[in-house]
């Protein structure tokens, strides 16, 4: 009996040490990315290795799997793009602390109603957590890790850094990541010169950039673009961006 107790205590100590080590490693990882741009993300590596397969995907390069990615500071990106991203993805971005209960509730009601197109309730902070720190896929373990890293980045970063990270690592086409790579690919200009219409188009196709094309937008992409432009005006345009930049 004594041996079993000793083994249980050792196992408990070992488990605690592993948990503490993982916690400290995750905090250090998030702190490093507070000032350092990620060299790559798990999704970038996955796209580099495998071409995505899905119904209605466009612009998939079977042979050239090089990743286009160039991290740009927020001040070098057109202010229209963060405004468009908030208008399209997370209009309460400056108000919540990583999770938007209203959006989650609306998404749950919409999905339970049996609508054909499922609706997501993820905030920009949650998307940064999964894009930067987690592997590609769906599971309860991944959702728990997403919630954990969302709390960490909301605690250790400011909103400005979260937005800067999001517009730099978000997938905007096959092997195209971030605003600069997308701007060069689709509009042949730097991200600092994006117009409101171009920013709204990029933000509008973000939920599924492999299906909705920014290079040759169809009716659905144009509809999303107009919706985003309308919301950009409702967010007071440059006033909202100034609040974000001062964060």
From TrEMBL:
Glycosyl transferase family domain boundaries: 70-232
The reaction(s) this protein catalyses: [GlcNAc-(1->4)-Mur2Ac(oyl-L-Ala-gamma-D-Glu-L-Lys-D-Ala-D-Ala)](n)-di-trans,octa-cis-undecaprenyl diphosphate + beta-D-GlcNAc-(1->4)-Mur2Ac(oyl-L-Ala-gamma-D-Glu-L-Lys-D-Ala-D-Ala)-di-trans,octa-cis-undecaprenyl diphosphate = [GlcNAc-(1->4)-Mur2Ac(oyl-L-Ala-gamma-D-Glu-L-Lys-D-Ala-D-Ala)](n+1)-di-trans,octa-cis-undecaprenyl diphosphate + di-trans,octa-cis-undecaprenyl diphosphate + H(+)
One Pfam assignment: Transgly
This protein's pathway: Cell wall biogenesis; peptidoglycan biosynthesis
Protein name in the entry: Biosynthetic peptidoglycan transglycosylase
Gene Ontology biological process terms in this record: cell wall organization; peptidoglycan biosynthetic process; regulation of cell shape
Gene name for this UniProt entry: mtgA
Lipid bilayer topology: Single-pass membrane protein
Domain of life: Bacteria
Primary location: membrane
Alphabetized Gene3D superfamilies for the sequence: Biosynthetic peptidoglycan transglycosylase-like (1.10.3810.10)
Signal peptide bounds: none
Role played: Peptidoglycan polymerase that catalyzes glycan chain elongation from lipid-linked precursors.
Compartment(s) where it occurs, according to its Swiss-Prot or TrEMBL record: Cell membrane
Keywords: Cell inner membrane, Cell membrane, Cell shape, Cell wall biogenesis/degradation, Glycosyltransferase, Membrane, Peptidoglycan synthesis, Transferase, Transmembrane, Transmembrane helix
Record's GO cellular component terms: peptidoglycan-based cell wall; plasma membrane
InterPro entries attached to this UniProt entry: Glyco_trans_51, Lysozyme-like_dom_sf, PBP_transglycosylase, Pep_trsgly
Gene Ontology terms for molecular function: pentosyltransferase activity; peptidoglycan glycosyltransferase activity
Family membership noted in the UniProt record: Belongs to the glycosyltransferase 51 family.
EC number(s) on file: 2.4.99.28
Ranges that cross the membrane: none
């Amino acid at each position: 009996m004594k041996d079993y107790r000793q083994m249980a205590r050792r196992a408990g100590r070992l488990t605690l040490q592993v948990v503490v080590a993982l916690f400290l490693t995750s905090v250090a990882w998030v702190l490093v990315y507070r000032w350092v741009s990620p060299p790559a993300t798990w999704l970038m590596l996955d796209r580099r290795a495998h071409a995505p397969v899905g119904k209605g995907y466009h612009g998939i390069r079977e042979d050239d799997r090089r990743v286009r990615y160039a991290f740009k500071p927020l001040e070098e990106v057109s202010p229209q793009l963060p405004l468009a991203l908030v208008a399209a993805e997370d209009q309460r971005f400056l108000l919540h602390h990583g999770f938007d209960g209203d959006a989650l509730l609306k998404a749950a009601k919409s999905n339970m109603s049996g609508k054909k197109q499922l609706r997501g309730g993820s905030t920009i902070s949650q998307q940064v957590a999964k894009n930067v720190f987690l592997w590609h896929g769906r599971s309860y373990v991944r959702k728990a890790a997403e919630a954990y890293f969302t709390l960490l980045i909301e605690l250790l970063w400011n909103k400005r850094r979260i937005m800067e990270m999001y517009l730099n690592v978000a997938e905007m086409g096959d092997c195209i990541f971030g605003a600069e790579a997308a701007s060069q690919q689709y509009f042949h200009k730097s991200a600092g010169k994006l117009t409101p219409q171009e920013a709204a188009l990029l933000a509008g196709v973000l939920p599924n950039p492999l299906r909705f094309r920014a290079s040759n937008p169809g009716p659905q992409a144009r509809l999303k673009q107009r919706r985003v432009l309308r919301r950009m005006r409702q967010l007071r345009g440059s006033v909202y961006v100034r609040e974000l930049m001062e964060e």
